[in-house]
Amino acid sequence: MNKKSWIQDMKAIPFLLPFFVAYMIFTILPIFKGLEMSLYDWTLVRKMEFVGLDNYKDMFVDPHFWRTLWNTTLFVILTTPTMVLLALGLALLANINSKLQTFFRGSFFLPSILSVSVISFLAIFMLQPYSGFVNTVLHSIGIDAEPFWMADKTLAWVSIVVVTLWWTVGFNMVLFLASLQDIPEQLYEASEIDGATRWEQFRHITLPQLIPIGRVILLLQILASYKVFAQILLITGGGPGGATRPLIQYIYEVGFTQNNLGYAATMSYALFFILLVLSIIQLRSQRSEER
């Protein structure tokens, strides 16, 4: 690298420096600070005594940690494959060249711009027993049962999963839709000449072209689902009986209700490690398939 090129590169430093400083202060520094907190008996007010790995030992024998981790994993299992398939189906529908194309795209994406407080309020309003919209519809079609959506474990999970899918599927649909529009039209025209049916076109042209973005959506959805918190807190509060309480809610309660930030930081790093391992597995499997 000659001196002139080096001087040109140095000109970018004043523009990069503000972001770099902000990134270090608000991202990198908190990572190491949180690791330090996990090694101490740390309260909301001040740092207490050094406890070493005691917080990590307590975590491995804490039944509430394992139960909330399972609840979170169950949420991931229920939502991730459903989200990917639903987003793909809606993207295919929104990609059809018809008069309703704009309506489909707008209506599918619209819920994703709402805040979590709004969608949670709508869910609670619609799922109320006796007067809620969902129960009213059930009564109108001849179903006399009165489901208590928030009081039954299974129904609570159904409610959370359905609300989350309705709220977040629009973003993933847009990713699939963008990838669909990048598929060369010549591939479909050539397949029609060869006599391929619509199903054969989807199987041999559309689906292979969507695999790369499908992997990205799968990874993003797993990471997002493991970080579920707000909608469960607002809709069910983690109930009934802690049946839907996710790990992040437990971390929040330990840190800000029980005033034990050290143990909360420990569980946060456990979640971080889980997400890191899942991300590495996903990326390595993707690279091995590409080879």
Automatic annotation (TrEMBL):
PROSITE patterns: ABC_TM1. It is found in: Cell membrane. The chain crosses the membrane at residues 12-32, 74-96, 108-127, 155-178, 216-241, 261-281. The keyword Transmembrane applies. Pfam families: BPD_transp_1. Belongs to the binding-protein-dependent transport system permease family. It comes from Aquibacillus albus. Keywords: Cell membrane, Membrane, Sugar transport, Transmembrane, Transmembrane helix, Transport. It is a multi-pass membrane protein. The keyword Ligase does not apply. This is Multiple sugar transport system permease protein. Residues 69-282 form the ABC transmembrane type-1 domain.
